[in-house]
Write a structure and sequence with these properties.
Helix 1 (27-43) crosses helix 3 (77-90), helix 3 (77-90) runs parallel beside helix 4 (104-110) and helix 6 packs parallel to helix 7. The protein is built from eight helices and eight strands; from the N terminus they run E-H-H-H-E-H-E-H-E-H-E-H-E-H-E-E. The longest helix is centred in the N-terminal third of the chain and has 17 residues, at 27-43. By secondary structure, the protein is of the alpha/beta class. It is globular, with a radius of gyration of 16 Å. The chain has a single domain, classed as 3-Layer(aba) Sandwich (Rossmann fold), CATH 3.40.50.150. The termini are close together. Bound molecules: S-adenosylmethionine (SAM). S-adenosylmethionine is lined by residues 73-75, 98-99, 101, 104-105, 128-131, 134, 157-159, 175-178, 186, 207.
Length: 247
């Protein structure tokens, strides 16, 4: 089953990429919009419930604002909350995030298990970034929030990381923009390399399901085919979008 969740203001909700901490709307609006998306994910059987700790989420947000060096990011407060909530609900033992740039997307996922927003104990949370200098900055950022090393960033091609990962992957976050030929089309290569390691119920998150829908066509066709994923929802509450799929 595949469907789309729209907020009616999705095309008016806009962030400034180099001002990630700017407040864009009253907190209760943000919570209501994200709750509505979580409700759809629950109805379609992707999430077992919709409850997460709002106080811990805000502690996570404050720690990132205080400790992370973020030159720019397309992760706005709604998306940060949605990623945190999905991870807090699914509680993946192992999570891999592909294409993490400065680490903001990665910690939006991993922050449900490390730092002041932690609400469960994870085993391995790996952010993958192919550019060494970006991976080094992301790792520095993550170390400031998670001294334990449960969350860490590696400088690698994400296709190689998932290919060599020896354990089940319960949550895969896709944001790598690939090379000139594939662009964000690399999502499908990464997911195909991870596919057999992802147990039933595992979740795949694909950023830019709206503004990269063209390059993502093959990926989106794949996850929306019930032969591959039992449900997939395109969450549209901003101009970027997040395709949320369950195996
Ligand atoms: C556009 S950035 C993602 C930014 C993120 N959406 C945000 O808002 O913070 C995509 C990143 O993927 C990285 N990347 C591209 N191909 C990759 C690959 N094969 N494996 C890992 N990272 C890759 C790029 O170097 C880049 O830093």
């Amino acid at each position: 089953m595949a469907r789309t969740y729209y907020s009616d203001d999705w095309d008016r909700y806009k962030m400034v990429y180099n001002e990630p901490h700017r407040v864009l709307e009253p907190l209760e609006n943000e919570i209501a919009i994200v709750d509505a998306a979580l409700d759809v994910l629950h109805e379609d059987g992707i999430l077992p419930h919709t409850k997460y700790d709002h106080i811990k989420m805000m502690a996570h947000r404050e720690a990132v604002a205080e400790l992370f060096e973020i030159p720019w990011t397309a992760i706005n407060p709604r998306m940060q909350r949605l990623l945190y909530a999905i991870n807090a609900i699914i509680q993946p033992e192992n999570m891999i995030a592909a294409g993490v740039f400065c680490g903001n997307t990665f910690i939006s996922n991993a922050g449900a298990a490390v730092g002041p927003g932690a609400c469960y104990t994870a085993k391995q949370l790996i952010g993958v970034e192919i550019k060494e200098e970006e991976a080094a900055r992301a790792e520095r950022n993550v170390r400031r929030i998670d001294p334990t090393g449960v969350a860490r960033v590696v400088a690698e091609d994400a296709v190689d990381t998932v290919t060599h990962f020896a354990e089940p992957i319960q949550l895969l976050y896709l944001d790598a923009d690939g090379d000139r030929e594939r662009g964000k089309g690399i999502y499908l290569d990464i997911f195909e390399a991870a596919y057999d390691k992802m147990p039933p119920g595992s979740v795949i998150l694909a950023h830019n399901s709206v503004n990269s829908a063209g390059r993502l066509k093959h990926y989106l066709d794949f996850v929306r085919d019930p032969a591959h994923c039992r449900a997939s929802v395109n969450v549209i509450f901003d101009g970027e979008g997040l395709e949320v799929s369950a195996k």
